[in-house]
Design a protein that fits this description.
Elements (H helix, E strand, L loop, with lengths): L1 H14 L5 H10 L6 H11 L2 E6 L2 E5 L8 H14 E7 L2 E6 L4 H11 L4 E6 L3 E6 L5 H12 L1
Antiparallel strand pairs: 1-2, 3-4, 4-6, 5-6
Helix pairs in contact: 2-3, 4-5, 4-6
C-alpha cells in the first residue's frame, strides 16, 4: 500500500501544482486512498520532495533533482540499504559504509545511481564502501541522505 501511495503522490505532483500536505491528502482521498496528514508527511520526507517556486510567490512539490526516475527505484534502494548496510561513518571528506559480505558493490551502485550532490566517487570492496565527498562540508548532507534509505 505504501509503495502504491507514494507512486500516486509522485504522479499527482507531476500533474498538479500541489503545495501543501493537506492538498495531497485530499487528492489521495478523492482517489480512494484513506490517509492522514501524518502519513503524507512521512511520505514527503521519504520521497525527499522539495518545494520549487512557480511564480506569484507560490510553490509546488517536486521530486529532488537527484531522485530516481521511478518509485520502484526508491523502493529497491531502500530495501537494499535496509538489508545490506550495517553502518555509516565518516572522517573528513570520506564516508565509510560497512555492509554484509558480498553486498558492497550493489550498495555502491545504488549510491552512484542516486546522483547525490557532492559525491565524487564510490569504491566498493566485498563488505565496505568508500565514498569520496567534495567539499568536506557536504559530508553531513550525504550521510543524511544515505541514512534516510536505512530508515
Amino acid at each position: 500500500m505504501k509503495a502504491k501511495r507514494q507512486a500516486l503522490i509522485l504522479e499527482l505532483i507531476a500533474k498538479e501544482a500541489l503545495d501543501t500536505q493537506e492538498q495531497l491528502v485530499d487528492r489521495l482521498k478523492h482517489m480512494g486512498i484513506e490517509v492522514t496528514q501524518a502519513t503524507v508527511s512521512r511520505d514527503v520526507k521519504e520521497l525527499r520532495l522539495i518545494k520549487v517556486a512557480v511564480g506569484d510567490g507560490r510553490y509546488r512539490y517536486a521530486p529532488p533533482p537527484d531522485a530516481f526516475d521511478k518509485p520502484e527505484d526508491i523502493k529497491r534502494a531502500r530495501r537494499i540499504f535496509q538489508e545490506a548496510v550495517l553502518s555509516i561513518d565518516s572522517s573528513l571528506n570520506l564516508v565509510v559504509i560497512k555492509t554484509l559480505t558480498g553486498t558492497a558493490q550493489g550498495v555502491a551502485a545504488v549510491i552512484d545511481g542516486m546522483g547525490i550532490s557532492g559525491v565524487l566517487a564510490t569504491v566498493a570492496g566485498d563488505d565496505s564502501i568508500l565514498v569520496v565527498v567534495k567539499p568536506e562540508e557536504a559530508v553531513g548532507t550525504v550521510i543524511q541522505e544515505l541514512e534516510a534509505l536505512r530508515s
